[in-house]
Specification:
Layout lengths: L1 H58 L6 H16 L3 H22 L3 H5 L1 H36 L3 H7 L24
């Protein structure tokens, strides 16, 4: 009976170590998703901070384009107020459309296009858009790894026991919203 007890204890220890290993990998993946989301958040904040400066620089030149300027400002406000990943993706899509329309309108103002402050802000916005796209991709990759882990056997059992839930992808649903704002010089 001594050897049977040793085998039973060894099996129990192995099962416990297995559960701990899966739990720790789930925590690690969940934290990677959170980190990837914070990277998107940083870039979106940078984008949101650039927009008022861009609008202020353009206001003096674009007095007849008040509606376009207000649309960008309103879209920015909605994007900053979004809470869930889905709501944020939708709001950012609307903001992207408003920015695209704004930048197309700028084409009609050669003096504004030549303004050094405006050119610098446009370049920053273009750079930020690229960083946002990269951050979205990195976030979605982490969500894929995490969601796969919590859905696949045997980690799905541990995920269910400890209430790990699926994360939402950051995706833009409307095809028109997927277009990156065109920035030209």
């Amino acid at each position: 009976m001594g050897i049977g007890l040793i085998i039973l204890i060894a099996v129990v220890v192995l099962v416990i170590m297995f559960v701990i290993g899966i739990y720790n990998s789930l925590v690690q993946l969940r934290n990677r998703v959170a980190n990837a989301w914070s990277q998107i958040d940083v870039q979106l904040k940078r984008r949101h901070d650039l927009i008022p400066n861009l609008i202020e620089t353009a206001k003096g030149y674009m007095q007849h384009e008040r509606g376009t300027l207000e649309a960008v400002t309103n879209a920015r406000s909605q994007a900053m107020g979004a809470k869930s990943v889905g709501d944020m993706a939708k709001a950012e899509g609307v903001l992207g459309q408003a920015l695209s329309k704004f930048l197309l309108t700028v084409e009609a103002y050669p003096d504004l296009k030549a303004n050094q402050n405006f050119l610098a802000l446009q370049e920053e916005l273009s750079s930020t858009e690229n960083k946002i796209a990269f951050s979205r991709q990195a976030y979605n990759d982490q969500v894929l790894f995490y969601n796969n882990k919590i859905q696949m056997f045997p980690s799905n059992i541990i995920a269910g026991m400890f209430n790990f839930s699926q994360k939402e992808y950051f995706q833009i649903e409307n095809a028109a919203e997927k277009a990156v704002p065109k920035v030209s010089f």
